[in-house]
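## retry 2 of 3
previous attempt timed out at serialization; input unchanged, resubmitting
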Amino acid sequence: MTTAVIDEVQDKALLAVPERPPSPPAAMMVEVARKYGVSPLRQMRESFGLAMGKQRFHLHEYYTAGLYDPEISAEEKRQYVGLRASYKLNTRLGAKGLVTMRSFAADKVLFTSLIRQLGFGTTQTQAVVSAVSRFGSIPTLETVEQLRSFLTEKAQYPLFGKPQSFSGSYGSALLLGVEGEMLLLGNGKRVALDGFCKEIIDQYGSGYLLQSALVQHPEMVAVTGKAVGSLRVVTVRDSNRPQVLYSAWKIPAPDAMSDNFWQSGSMIAPVDAMTGKVGQARIGTGLDARNIDVHPVSGAKITGKQLPMWDRVREMVCEAHAVVPEFGIVGWDVAIGPDGPMIIEHNANPFHTLYQLSHCRGINNPDFMPIFDRVSAYSKELLEGRRALEKARTKEIRRTKKRA
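## retry succeeded, writing output
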């Protein structure tokens, strides 16, 4: 049994999907005008220009990224992308028709099982909630009763639960153990065990993972506490072996169970892709954004920190990308454990919002554009080679049939 400091009982355990941000209120435009001297008319002109241009911004993304700041030049603003343009960039880097493993790679059970078999450090799946799929020796739970039985009799805590097919930490929960009829959560709160089981079956009965919660390297724990602050490490592949493009450290809020930056109080910091040294950390977005140098609770240094085992992180993600070379770009969520780095998830469509918020720079910058051109060109070359080979095989089959 795991003990924890219990603050309160909550009705829901799973991290809810946030509503799409509404259009910025007039009060925000007025506040921007007051603080930055940018008139509401100019804000509207800039934001609509980015929405209609290649950046494909939603209106709220203009304010989230702080692009109203007059110190950011017009050219620099055009280097940013919204979520729609981020997706378009990723599909450009992996030629259409080349990436045939997208569904397999998106399956968190199958992909982590594959890379574990290949020797990469990764999460261990203890059970899967699913009414339709089976996963060999991994227990499959279909009903509330089966899930309850697993959580009370077989689970090895702490556990981290997450949907099989969603990203962004939606539906996730850190579980510390069972105490009577209550389930202890990683945020210091608790929820009724039966209510939790019903919540899982009702909302994610088609696929929900229960994995062993990762333990961080002591140097990471000293900063973030027990909640895992993962690294988003993005790799690209051209004619040479995969290479690290950029990285950011997602630092969870003190009372959070996961590290996604959209949660209130979460922090983010750029990480030098070559050295693993942490740059200027930030908390909040838009008008609420501010720089921080130390963690607000632990008091540990964030900005300027040297992450442990960085050479091993770089080597691991590049080798893992080479397992799926048809992908032009991959975003890896990585935790640094006591014995080395571990892959948490693979993202075939990494949202570059994290880069832009942490590095305060658009993804389509002069340093990255030549790399994107090489990656795109090599993807097209691979696709052309595959089609030529298939065409040659088809001709040979036809010739063989004629001779027969």
